[in-house]
Design brief:
By secondary structure, the protein is an all-alpha fold. The protein contains eight helices and no strands. The protein folds into two domains: 71 residues, lambda repressor-like DNA-binding domains (434 Repressor (Amino-terminal Domain), Orthogonal Bundle), CATH 1.10.260; 30 residues.
């Protein structure tokens, strides 16, 4: 699902209008409409600050919205910068290897929580 579609879906699930979202995020209704309809030009694309406000208003996961908007959340960006070679290797893994890595991480997390 695209960023705009997700914003529309979250807004509708909360029963909010575009006007209400616009007022709560300090932007115009036309901007909210452009966001939802993926009609933004490159310079108009949502800032991280706006996405943060949207996440608050829509009770959504900010990191998820940032990733949908092709922005890397700050905590992830920091870790990537600390270990770029590791993230390059992860990015090159096929689905089977990623599934195995995810399973190992879940198992490790469960053991740490005991």
């Amino acid at each position: 699902m695209q960023f705009g579609e997700t914003i529309r879906q979250l807004r509708l699930e909360l029963g909010l209008t575009q006007q209400e979202i616009a007022e709560q995020t300090s932007v115009s209704v036309s901007y909210i409409s452009k966001v939802e309809n993926e009609k933004l030009h490159f310079g108009d694309y949502p800032s991280e600050k706006f996405i943060h406000r949207l996440a608050d208003v829509l009770k959504a996961d900010e990191d998820h919205l940032l990733l949908l908007a092709d922005k890397v959340p700050a905590a992830m960006r920091m870790r990537i910068r600390q270990r770029p070679e590791l993230f390059r290797r992860i990015a090159m893994m096929d689905n089977q290897a990623l599934d195995a890595l995810e399973l190992a991480m879940r198992s490790s997390k469960k053991q740490a929580n005991r």
